[in-house]
Design a protein that fits this description.
CATH superfamily of the largest domain: P-loop containing nucleotide triphosphate hydrolases
CATH class of the largest domain: Alpha Beta
Number of strands: 14
Structural class: alpha/beta
Strand content: 5-15%
Shape: elongated
Number of helices: 18
Strand order of the largest sheet: 6-7-10-5-11
Largest sheet: 5 strands, parallel
Number of domains: 3
CATH topology of the largest domain: Rossmann fold
Radius of gyration: 30 Å
Distance between the termini: 92 Å
């Protein structure tokens, strides 16, 4: 044997290893002589890989077995009843979402059956005016579902290479919503809000400069919507070749996109008016008010209208279900103020009760709030802001005293910023008895 030949015994397999490079004996401790050869490392890696695959199969089967109970708890009528507790009107949109989510569960249940029938995803596109309940509906739906749900603002996304968030951020948000469970992430739901903001600029608004936040983002979303392996780094970590990454298959992730799509009703109207028929749709809506006209037009949106708006055809093909929401009239806004579980009026009543104050609103005051919201053209989104403006001085002054009071908000408080009616309530014997009972309990 040549003098310069190096040999060492592997601590695992006990074989005599001839060392020609560092890779023949990747692990070696010169102090103790402990060493592991490359063959043993390969075998160990293969064992770990096989074990992970087996555990993944077990987790997948357990997830599918649990779907029976999930399906029972999330039938379409149950989902709609839940949304009815928080969202006023928009019954058609609630039904579409309820069926889409239920079918998503059923698709997961059927995906391992070897009958050569592949059920395609039914991704949803939602459109409606600002403040009509799109984001609120999805937020409450997220609380009900037993699968991960994440909301991402599409307007913050840019093409790869530009400053901003890459499209992979949407999947990464879902990954963290699933507590870093890859199996649950791959069967979750992603909601892309403000989707209309990434419509490509066309016509007279076309720009010769780079457009990193529009058509390029749609192109980047194509494979993700259809189903592709998405690779991303940990949150807050920059992309570079040596950064550890996580891979997620989006084949079974349901995508719901939503936006106001401002101006699409004009595209629909032009299309309908181009019909030469004497009983055309355009003539029927001329006498209606603006909101009614908008609601009638938005219901007739077609994929061709979305293409003219600036959504590329490939994206539209991957969003087969169009869900439209109508504008909220005064009566609907009035119901939103008082009926849902988290209604703004109920929130303020609870806040004021902490200061021993009973808060009441007259019906005229609530109607004044609704009219003000309609004038602002921001829908239900502005209701709480209007109430906050009217109650700012009250919420500042009343905590100065702990005596029992009743505050009545009138229409003048909303319309003219007048002072509310404040009545000091004397503590009667019934109240003292009731308080004693409460303390005794």
């Amino acid at each position: 044997m040549a003098q310069n030949d190096l040999h060492h015994v592997c601590s695992f397999c006990k074989r005599d290893i001839k060392i020609t490079s560092q890779y023949d004996l990747p692990i070696y401790d010169p102090q103790t002589g402990f060493a592991i050869c490359k063959n043993c490392i390969k075998d160990i890696y293969q064992l770990i890989t096989d074990n992970e695959e087996e555990n993944a199969k077990i987790d997948r089967q357990r997830f599918i077995n649990d779907l029976d109970s999930v399906l029972d708890k999330n039938r379409p009528h149950i989902i709609k009843e839940y949304l009815d507790e928080y969202i006023v009107n928009q019954d058609h949109a609630k039904k579409i979402l309820a069926v889409a989510v239920y079918n998503h569960y059923k698709r997961m249940k059927c995906m391992d059956k070897k009958d050569n029938v592949d059920i395609e995803k039914s991704n949803v596109i939602m459109m409606g005016p600002s403040g009509c309940g799109k984001t609120a509906m999805l937020s409450h739906l997220a609380k009900l579902l037993d699968i991960p749900f994440a909301v991402t603002d599409a307007s913050s996304l840019t093409e790869a290479g530009f400053v901003g968030a890459d499209v992979e951020v949407a999947v990464r948000n879902l990954y963290y919503a699933a507590n870093k469970d890859i199996e649950r992430t791959e069967h979750g739901i992603i909601y892309l809000d403000e989707f209309d903001k990434i419509a490509r600029k066309s016509g007279e608004n076309n720009s010769i400069t780079a457009d990193p936040g529009h058509e390029g983002v749609q192109q980047a979303l194509l494979k993700m919507l259809e189903g592709n392996v998405v690779e991303f780094t940990a949150r807050g970590q920059r992309k570079h070749p040596e950064a550890p990454t996580t891979k997620i298959d989006t084949t079974n992730i349901l995508f719901i996109v939503g936006g106001a799509f401002v101006g699409i009703e004009k595209i629909v109207e032009r299309r309908l008016k181009s019909n030469d028929s004497s009983i055309g749709f355009g003539a029927q809506v001329k006498d209606k008010n603006e909101d009614s006209k908008y609601d009638e037009l938005i219901k007739q949106v077609t994929p061709e209208d979305l293409m003219k708006f600036g959504i590329i055809p490939e994206i539209i093909g991957r969003l087969p279900i169009i869900c439209t929401l109508g504008t909220l009239d005064e009566d609907a806004l009035l119901r939103i103020l008082t009926e849902p579980k988290n209604a703004p009026v109920k929130q303020y009543e609870k806040l004021m009760s902490v200061d021993n104050v009973t808060l009441k609103f007259t019906e005229e005051a609530l109607r004044a709030v609704s009219k003000k919201a309609i004038a602002r053209k921001t829908g239900a989104r502005s209701l709480k802001g209007i109430l906050e403006e009217a109650m700012l001085d009250i919420m500042y002054e009343l905590p100065k005293s702990k005596e029992k009071r009743q505050v009545t908000i009138t229409a003048e408080c909303i319309e003219k910023n007048a002072a509310p009616q404040i009545e000091v309530l004397a503590s009667n014997e019934d109240d003292s008895v009731e308080e004693k009972d409460n303390f005794a309990g």
